[in-house]
Amino acid sequence: DMPPLDIPPGVEAGAIAGTRRFGLGSVVLRLPGPSDGVVRVEETRHPRLADHVVMPVAHSEMLVSRAVAMQVASFLRSGRFAA
């Protein structure tokens, strides 16, 4: 369990959730519902997020994914993820 995330007023935050279960986390953790093998999609939602996107990537894959990088760039430019 993690403490609740505090997003201060005036801060635009976005979250990218993955749905591709891959690697050791997918074997050991066996998370219920959609997840990236380490984090469940529902754990990435927060009422104060400016935007949220779900992508078919694994947890560690997010670090090297061109598609994820494009979404991050879109969010940084506009405060929204690309459609």
Question: What descriptors fit this protein?
Answer:
about 80 residues, alpha+beta, two-stranded parallel sheet, 2 strands
Describe, in plain words, how this protein is organized in 3D:
- By secondary structure, the protein is an alpha+beta fold.
- It contains 2 helices and 2 strands.
- The protein has a two-stranded parallel ribbon with strand order 1-2.
- The radius of gyration is 13 Å and the shape is globular.
- It starts with 13 loop residues before the first strand and ends in a 5-residue tail after the last helix.
- The mean pLDDT is 91.
Taking all Cα atoms into account, the compactness measure Rg is 13 Å
Count the E strands: 2
Compute the separation of the termini in Å: 31 Å
**What sort of overall outline do the alpha carbons produce when their principal axes are compared?**
globular
Q: Could you list the spans in which at least 5 consecutive residues all have pLDDT below 50?
A: none
Largest sheet: 2 strands, parallel
Helix amount, in percent?
10-25%
The neighbouring-strand order within the major sheet is 1-2
* Coarse structural class: alpha+beta
**Strand percentage:** 5-15%
Q: How much is the average pLDDT?
A: 91
Give the H and E element order: EHEH
Determine the number of helices (DSSP H or I, runs of at least 4 residues). 2
